[in-house]
Amino acid sequence: MSFTGKTTYSAGTTLPEIAEDVADLVSINAPHETPLLDALGDAPRVARSTVHEWVEDSLLPNSDAITGVASSSSVTINDGTRFRVGDLVRFDGLSDIALVSDVSAEEGTLTLVRGYGGTTPGTLTVGKAVYVIGNASLEGADAQTARYTLRQRRQNYTQIFASTISVSGSELAANQIAVRDELAWQKNLRSRELLRDLENSVVNGVAPSDTPEGGDGVRRSMRGLISFIEQNQFTVGTGGFPADAALTEVGLNLALREVWKRSSGQIDLIVVGGREKRAINQFVASNRRYFTGTSESYKDLVSVYESDFGICRVVLSRYVPTGTVLMLDSSRLSVLPLAGRSFAYTPLARTGDAENGQLLGEYTLECRNESAHGIIRGFTA
After folding, report:
1. E strands within the chain?
2. Of 26, 31, 38, 40, which is most buried, counting CB atoms within 10 Å of its CB?
3. Which are the contacts of 365, defined by CB distance < 8 A and separation ≥ 6?
4. pLDDT digits (tens, 9 = 90+) for 3-62
5. Model pTM?
């Protein structure tokens, strides 16, 4: 027997008693997460000026490279001021120890006593590194000339991130589907956009070449991580770095080792895009084991990479350029708001039948001791 009751399809969906069935949810698919900002966390302080400065110092350098070999006991180096008479030195790749008997700082020449302590002298070549073991002072000798390093002031600039909101009076008064308060909803959307832009700027931002502090017609923008890192730059296939098309564990460890050799920093964040994250996941591919039974889960993920040079969280960020790996010491990084200028909403003057306002924040990146961080570039696969 057929159904004879009243149906919606018998009269169409335009009947006045048929209500719209719209889910009480607005779905957003646009990327808005900020994993690097989440990893760094809130800064412990604020910036007090649009030109934010900090002071860095360093120890006296204790190594240099040979630029010329006059004889087995006389070499030239880049900077003779790094050495003193009485220094015990060793040479990269050789087992012998030498004593510095004379230094000509102006010419950058070292006179050496080779085979010190019964060690066997090797062959010196241009490019080899010379390391100071320590200075052996003479008993009763006069004090040597004082040496010191100069503290350096580093700086970055604050950048204003702003978005305007305008909602008409009619829109505010009307009942909305899935949105209770249109103004609050617009604030939420624009806030996500500004946070997204802030993370992107922390990675990729650069300051203007001229008038970086900003001015009439010059927009002030902050330098990002890629702009700051200068000393520890590694390019695939150059400077002894492996020519692998994709990131490998050998290449990553080489870069971590070089940063460790040059600084006391502790790399604890590896920030990559999608392709390089997949390459890191492949580090353990050869050690995977497959199980049968009740488990139906398969894990193909490396979230923490532990090596001799540190325990590193692996952070996936959409804003790291393809082919690039950032190696960061998070203890030396801060994203600071200008005092009183954290992201906030300010109503604007009403000039008509609309509620107007502006979301605005002003932030900068403090990247201390850029030599404590590193970057690898050039991966193509």
Report:
1. 51-56, 63-71, 74-77, 87-91, 97-104, 109-113, 129-135, 152-157, 159-168, 233-235, 269-272, 304-307, 310-316, 324-328, 333-337, 344-347, 354-367, 374-377
2. 40
3. 156, 201, 202, 205, 222, 223, 224, 225, 228, 333, 334, 335, 336
4. 555 555 555 555 555 555 555 555 566 677 899 999 999 988 999 999 999 999 989 999
5. 0.84
